[in-house]
Design brief:
This protein is 16% helix and 41% strand. The chain has 188 residues and is an alpha+beta fold. The protein folds into 2 domains: 2-86, Beta Barrel (OB fold (Dihydrolipoamide Acetyltransferase, E2P)), CATH 2.40.50; 88-178. It is globular and about 45 Å long.
């Protein structure tokens, strides 16, 4: 009888693993991105663009793009508590620019990463912004995007780590980054 229970438990676990692995693997165009799991309060939702702004337990805000697998996004409202899994935004390129290049709306471009269908992950955005925070502990930089959303992107790749020493608050840069992508957004 114990053997039968052990076999049944093994079968159940094996059948659950593919679904779990699907969430754990970064989507195309975001290989190497860090998976973050947290609880947050919804601050704003845009079902048309699929952007959700969340406030964490320590008061920090982040904007993520809800992946295509997240259904019923229109039912999530500001004030809702959610458990979320998301891949942190990653900087791909950061280039210093002249201080007079601060009109982000004129500098913005968005495209799917090479070989990735739009909306399926790895959305790349290029925007000219002023750096608000350089965080050596998180290995990240933060800025506001053209829509005024707080954005934090990882600079944890070997080719970008020098930015933690080179950049300072107030610097104007052109940043190319992947959007943070929510792969699980579950109301509490």
């Amino acid at each position: 009888m114990k053997t039968l229970k052990a076999i049944a438990a093994s079968v159940l676990l094996a059948s659950a693993l593919p679904a779990f692995a699907e969430i754990e693997a970064p989507p195309a165009g975001m290989e190497g991105a860090e998976l973050i799991e947290t609880t947050a309060t919804v601050q704003a939702v845009s079902p048309s663009s699929r952007y959700v702004t969340l406030k964490g337990t320590e008061g920090n805000e982040i904007t993520v793009r809800a992946g295509d697998r997240i259904e019923h996004l229109d039912k999530i409202k500001p004030g809702d508590q959610v458990d979320i899994k998301y891949y942190r935004s990653m900087a791909i390129d950061v280039v210093a620019t002249a201080a007079d290049e601060t009109e982000p709306e004129l500098q913005r471009s968005t495209s799917a990463a090479a070989g990735v269908a739009p909306g399926s992950g790895g959305l790349r955005t290029t925007v000219t912004v002023k750096i608000l925070v350089v965080d050596p502990y998180k290995k990240a930089i933060a800025f506001r995007d053209p829509e005024g959303r707080w954005r934090e992107v990882s600079v944890d790749s070997p080719s970008l780590k020098h930015l933690l020493d080179d950049l300072k608050e107030g610097d104007t840069v052109r940043v190319t980054f992947t959007d943070a992508l929510a792969v699980s957004l579950v109301p509490r």
